[in-house]
Design goal:
heterodimer, A: mainly alpha, Rossmann fold, 3-stranded parallel beta sheet, 8 helices, elongated, B: alpha/beta, Beta Polymerase, domain 2, 4 helices
Amino acid sequence: MAAEEGKVYVGNVDVAARRARDILLGKLKLEDAVDWATSFSLWPVHLTTSCCSTEFAATFGPRFDGEQFGSLPWVSPRQTNLIVIEGTVTRKMACAVRITWEQMPSPKFAIAMGACALDGGLFYNSYNVVRPWEVIPIDIYIPGCPPRPESVARAIVELQRKIRRKHLAGEWVRTGWRPDREPVKPKEDVCSWWRG
Amino acid sequence: MAADKLSTARQRAEEALKSIGVSYSVEEGANFVEFIVDVARLKDAALALKNAGFGTVVSVTATDYPKKNTIKVVYHVTSMIDDEVKGAIIGVGVYLPRIDKPSMPSLTGVWLSAEFMEREVFEFFGVEFEGHPDLKPLLLIPPLAEKRPLRKDFVVREENIYEGVPFSNVG
């Protein structure tokens, strides 16, 4: 059958729309859909604070293949929703971490990686080290010095489970607020030295 | 092998320093030799060493001696291309008075690779390098660099493992 001039053939739009509505709104709650979609698109931003980043890179290499969890490191904080603190955060780097975190769109999540990100680790009681949980809210901690790539992959899977179990992303989108905790604000302006 | 190269390098450095008439004292250890010169003649000594073949700075470091009331700044230099002294490291250094802002000439004009290391010595010890092109803190934030963290009288309060130290409570 020849196509009539001036018309575009796209199939039966009414039927397709009805089916999509049933799937998205009738059988599945929209929050659950958001949780599901967010948990399989956790894109970490490329912010290398310290030496754990080599293990982080290995996680997304061919052997461990972090991309199978729907996670892909991306360059710009504006298009990402996960930040992985890789090791020590110095006082100078704390400013960069906070700026990157504030640029990322909600819902967003954070993973702290390595002993230094927990309590200082090797640089415990140092004059130049900041604990990342004073700067941004952390969801998952990975112990180890450095953690194996399997641990990083496990942390991503645990974060996916946490998002879907507690409906973090869906609630965040619906209410504009994170359901399980208050937002972390640094006690002191971490960029005061930079603004002058 | 390494000892031969070190003795060759030492001989060469001594000849270079004697040829321009710089008086020096030698401090040596297991695998290193350091020539301590006067602050006023440091630049001449550095130029003589560079002309003698020591073309690369591998480290610029300082040591704080509160009991002797001095700060020692040492440039460790080596040669990357001369096979006779390759790998042997020679130090040329000065003793400075331990005051708030001790000052010495910058050797960035002689060895370009000393620039960032001099900035590091500046922020950690407060030594001011005259003639440095860009003397500002490199690794530390400026308010912390003013406290001279690697001097011996800098104190970090011991951390409570349950609470931690507040963000700004250092020094």
